[in-house]
């Protein structure tokens, strides 16, 4: 059972995070903790976007077909949830339980994947990447201009307070007692043993449960005979065909599965944020972030993108511009004494230097980190650990730790 | 087991395979010919990797003749026609065992199962281990295929083809580039495999061809120029002409991998 030990530990560590964050930020090192640790709402974003990155890696890292238009599925899931809530989708009324809407969001994205896949899998390599990117960008432009979506589609759409004022509930559909709402404002709070969990902490657990279920499903597929064929296709598609696999069907199956989970991830995002824009759903940089997460975390390792995204987001928040929560900049500005801040070195005050170096340049540093990873850790965090341990981390790490 | 009628393949103005009528029974048949004679193209046509310009290919499946002319590689493989490659063509990042296991899994009913772990299907693993033992790779089962020596890669090539549970096995130069010590192992393997499969073998080493074959077919510039038992083919003047430009019969037995200087420059690079 050693295979499960590492996974259980990771899940437990994540589950303990809200309590840990709460305790540390209330402690004497609270300011430092706030500077270093991601905020709770960042952690929720990390989960749903992590799921999207995993779904991207599922097709790109395991079959070797880079799905550069993966944002199309994420966007489809996200818009679907908002449009359902606003009563714009026939057959799925505004009051539909969120869990069912989420499932439908995944299915609609999967259906889109069938269409895109049927055309795109005629190609391979960089041409496949380009044509999927093309599809996603067409959808991006289309969504920006479609006035049916909202009065100002360029700015996206929000869940309307008049049709769907309550939060989106995660839980067992139709059983009121087993549902809790997610969202920073519209979510539920829970009081447990005298402690109150805030909306973000509750959302963290609920979104986390859905993400965990999706992750385990993908994990199972990767280790199934079907998943082994996906890996065989990545390794040598010609030979996979020659030993009797109709590779087109396997690629389609993998692509559609991946599209489904990307749709669910988008649905969770929309359910949590209650508003979507073309830029944070369909735009190609959304796929870019998933690619970044996959490369930092480890391409072709299913858990890698989650860690990669965690890494990416932590750096971004640590270096976030002024006025956006904890981070290095406000920390230095409040902690350094007036004398240090106003000291001049070579015609530049320390304060001015900090401002110039840190304010709003997170992307620059993330870019540098990305380049360093590609150069020195090409297999990513999890991939490098796997190489070092000589096998899958979940299998080899417990041996290394406990059995010697 | 396998037959072709009028099989032809043109690449632009070049006819690589020219109107070939061929019939493979339950035997070990060697396909020989100078470089560029069209042997590998012929293999590619048989398995469906290339589409013929004209002609038909039929495969015997459970005693019935089935037209497989327009079938893909995956389809012919499912029907029992498997091949090995002249240039090693394996799954380099997977283990040796996994290479064979994934091939064994292809002809089972669980190939596309996605809800159970692959490890749960012990039958494919046992099958793969048995095949590795047969080809002499059982001790290398856990090695990564990409790290194998050339000789071991050639054995793995045959192992993957065997794992598909073929009725007809096409072996494309299983000896290519193998050191002289290992050649005997591969000859033993070919003879062993021919016990229970119909085998079509492309081979340049005439010593091996004469030793193992039941029958020899000679291809030159895309056409069959001789077909018969090894001895008769060796003495055929047309074959000597094609191979050696008219040298003495005795020299042919010693001619090995090159078959050089035979004026087939037009087809160079096709195999």
Keywords:
heterodimer, A: mainly alpha, ABC transporter involved in vitamin B12 uptake, BtuC, two-stranded antiparallel sheet, 17 helices, 8 strands, 5% strand, globular, B: 271 residues, alpha/beta, Rossmann fold, 2 domains
What can you tell me about this protein's structure?
The complex is a heterodimer of chains A (404) and B (271). Chain A is built from 17 helices and eight strands. Chain A has helices spanning 2-26, 30-36, 40-63, 71-85, 98-120, 125-145, 199-222, 225-242, 247-273, 284-297, 304-318, 328-335, 338-342, 350-358, 362-376, 380-389, 393-403, and strands at 157-158, 168-171, 179-182, 190-192, 195-197, 275-276, 344-345, 348-349. Chain A is globular, with a radius of gyration of 22 Å. Chain A has a single domain, classed as ABC transporter involved in vitamin B12 uptake, BtuC. Chain A is 67% helix and 5% strand. With 404 residues, chain A is mainly alpha-helical. Chain B is an alpha/beta fold and 271 residues long. Chain B folds into two domains: 1-80 and 169-271, Rossmann fold, CATH 3.40.50; 89-165, no CATH class. Chain B contains ten helices and ten strands. Chain B has helices at residues 39-47, 73-78, 96-106, 122-135, 150-163, 180-194, 206-212, 230-234, 237-244, 249-252, and strands at residues 2-11, 14-24, 28-32, 54-61, 64-67, 81-83, 168-172, 198-202, 215-220, 223-228. A six-stranded mixed β-sheet of chain B has the order 6-7-8-3-9-10, with helices on both faces. A four-stranded antiparallel β-sheet of chain B has the order 2-1-4-5, covered by helices on one side. In chain B, α3 (96-106) crosses α4 (122-135), α3 packs parallel to α5 and α4 crosses α5. Chain B is globular, with a radius of gyration of 19 Å. The relative contact order of chain B is 0.19. The chains are: A mainly alpha (404), B alpha/beta (271). At the A-B interface, α8 and α9 of A face α2 and α3 of B.
